[in-house]
Amino acid sequence: MTGIKLIKRQEIPVPTMAGWLVLVLLLSLVTIVIGRSIHSFLSPNQPQPESQVLVVEGWLDTEQLDQAVTAYRKGNYKYLITSGGPINRWSDVSFDNFADRAADYLKTHGLDDILIQSVPAPASAQDRTFLSAVMVRDALAIDQQITAFDVFSGGVHSRRTHKVYRLAFGSDVDIGILSAAPSRYEAAQWWLDSEGAKSVIGESISLLWTVCCFYPPPPGSHEEKWAVSRTAETD
User: Fold this and answer.
1) Helices in 124-193 by DSSP H: which ranges?
2) What is the pTM of this model?
3) What is the pLDDT of residues 60-84, one digit of tens each?
4) What domain range is 102 assigned to?
């Protein structure tokens, strides 16, 4: 074997000590910028000016539901819808689902004079927020005059909620999003609290998965409501 070389010597540039220092400083700066802005990115407040209905995600805690009361009073809504699936935690034995629980709380904490429609979702074999959005879509289909509505979600979950609702509704209805401030940590310094860090990191991963990997089934298909049996659909 002559004339065949499997390896060769080659020079490559590497940073000097000063170069490494600059890279570390740039990486630190980027990390700080992202860290200070990612919470607000995941928690948008972009209501639609013509929204007629406020949809409140029922899994929110009581402090965030109180914020939903304020948001409804500030808006020009016709009525309110609560959404949410089954409650599995043993402590919430009074209600079978989050939609009913939130509706009861809102009625007894400032919204007893308005129409509140509870739209529960069954246990989901897929994205729970998506199934809740589909159930809300079907409920709103009865009111043909609704051309825009807002969704009231919680903190860093809000951007993904808005994305999922857009996937469920398509482009026929304008959808706004309102984000409740977190009640268990300080949003401006989320990285200093384990609850904040877990929420931001977890929702960032979930949003990336939704954007790149979640493909909603065709509207009205059985696959769109995996939790609903074919028998139930024909009853």
Assistant:
1) 128-140, 158-169
2) 0.83
3) 999 999 999 999 999 999 999 999 9
4) 45-234
